[in-house]
Every structure is written in structure tokens, then in C-alpha cells.
Design brief:
The protein is built from four helices and two strands. With 100 residues, the chain is mainly alpha-helical.
Amino acid sequence: MLKRADKQFRRSLKTKDRKLAERRLTELKGQVVNLKITEDARLWFEDVAERWIATTAHALKENTVKRRRTCIANVAPYFAAMAIRNIQAHHCERWLTDRG
């Protein structure tokens, strides 16, 4: 278990070999140190979608931006009450099956 900015990071090193575990732990520490701990993890799906549109819209045609907004509007009801970090693969699969 590692801690950074009052957050715990628990990962299995997936080995019983001590030397290999020490190397993997060193790699994991390096990855955790590079993480940015911000409040952005608590953003809702729609907030992240709007940020994405805002940052990419300048390089896109108007119709492309409209199409992306339509796609986001269709997906948003499935993820409306979730923080972006809580969305998992099974949520996307549920959206896919309900869509059909």
C-alpha cells in the first residue's frame, strides 16, 4: 500500500519472488509519484464531456461538433448521476444493451 496526498493506492505486485516484488514496487512508486491528485476526479460525466468539446471544438467543423454533442446527449442519461471515475465497463455495456 502506498499513500500520496492522503490517498491510498493498493495494488497487487503479482509475485512471490522478493527481488521481483521489490523491482515492481519501485516501478509502482514511480507511477504513483507522477499522478496528479486534483478535484477533477469528482467531476460528473457531463462536465468532462463539455470540457472535451470545448478543448477540441476549435479544430473541428461545425457539424462534427453538433454530432458529438448529440452523441453526448444520448449517452448522458446513463451516466448522469455518476462521477467520471466511477464509470466502469459494465456501465458502458448496460448502455449498449439498453440502446438496442
